[in-house]
Amino acid sequence: MFSRDKWSEIIEALSSNWFRTLLTAFGVLWGIFILVILLAAGKGLENGVKQGFGGIATNSMFMWTQTASKSYKGMPKGRRYNFKIGDVSSLKQNIPELRFVSPRNQLGGFGGANNVVRGLNTGAFDVYGDYPEIIQQEPMDITSGRFINYNDIQGNRKVAVIGDGVRRELYEIGEEVIGTYIKISGVNFMVVGTYKKKGNGGGNAEEAQKQIFVPFTAFSQAFNMGETVGWMAITADDGSSITNLKSRVFEIMKERHSIHPEDDRAIGNFDLYEEFSKINGLFIALKGVAYFVGILVLLSGVIGISNIMLIVVKERTNEIGIRRALGATPWSIRGQILMESIFLTVVSGMAGIAMATGIIALINMQMAGMDTSEMMFANPSVDLGVVFTALAILMLSGLLAGLIPAQNAIKIQPVDALRTE
């Protein structure tokens, strides 16, 4: 039950030496401030790094052929081989947990020779032969027109979807793009859409916008690829891990291409899900470090409060003796000291949370007008769970800080306390 007299006594006791109380409270304020800021900074770093993966389905792997390192079925080691379009249907039939299996072929690229021409403008760009599903694995915003579809695949249509970076280099500002033609390695393709990548997968954001997507079948026909597949992008269902499925993928590919079952070098792969899981583990560790450092700093403030409460108990020895002589129970004395300690800890801690929240809000306001797509830091924040955790830590800290002084207070004998001057 709320007792006005008790709370007036608590406030009077803490304000009797206000400068000492403020210095003591600052230790707790600073500790909880550091804890919240560290957690928010870790979240901002996590958001920034994951933003780089925002353009790729993370439960994916990329697979390509390499040189066979072991002889098998009369075939020598060191031989080269290629994936075929039939491998795609085989994987889908034998591993139903796979959501997308996208065969891909690639031409040219950044740093290579100019392979795309439009009028007098030329450029070196990555050109991909793809199926429509690739937009689910590398999400992109279609800024005009459309993406490739199965009508394009079935009709071997020579159409292209270009990135905003390609448009800037090959077209004038404001010039109509849809319906125009670009020449890729001497073959004309009609532009049917433009895109902007949502993320860069941790790569170069600018170069991610300088890519060209054409139908896989038209690519194979135009550049004499036949049934050859350069590499594959494979994504598992949400309920499955591509890391756990890739051994089955390799077994099927090795069997179809007469590769020794123990030849681990014949198939190259990059497991994006595995790398993403490592990054998640890193951020869990960073959060643990933030809690560890913040609680240590907070602990120093709590020790300061405990020391001050011991001094307060010593200064109030005569008062405690009088209260004991008048019939105050040990629990009422203990409760009074504990309430003062908890009150001081919680109030100073809440001030620290408020100050940290204000700083985080200012940072977010400053970043609101900035393009954070290429930054490794974005939207620092703390959720309500962190606030409630901080409050629980404060309550426990206040209780611990007042426990020893409270025990000392109830050990004071009324006669001895009354003799103290």
From TrEMBL:
Per the annotation, which location comes first and is thus the protein's main one? membrane
InterPro entries in alphabetical order: ABC3_permease_C (IPR003838), MacB_PCD (IPR025857), Macrolide_Exporter_MacB (IPR050250)
Q: Which residues form the ABC3 transporter permease C-terminal domain?
A: 292-414
Q: Where is the chain membrane-spanning?
A: 21-41, 289-313, 342-364, 384-404
Q: How does it sit in the membrane?
A: Multi-pass membrane protein
Q: Which compartments does it reside in?
A: Cell membrane
- Source organism, top-level taxon: Bacteria
* Keywords for this protein: Cell membrane, Membrane, Transmembrane, Transmembrane helix
Q: Boundaries of each MacB-like periplasmic core domain copy?
A: 21-248
Return the Pfam families for the record: FtsX (PF02687), MacB_PCD (PF12704)
Q: Which family does it belong to?
A: Belongs to the ABC-4 integral membrane protein family.
Protein name, entry field: ABC transporter permease
Q: Which organism is it from?
A: Autumnicola edwardsiae
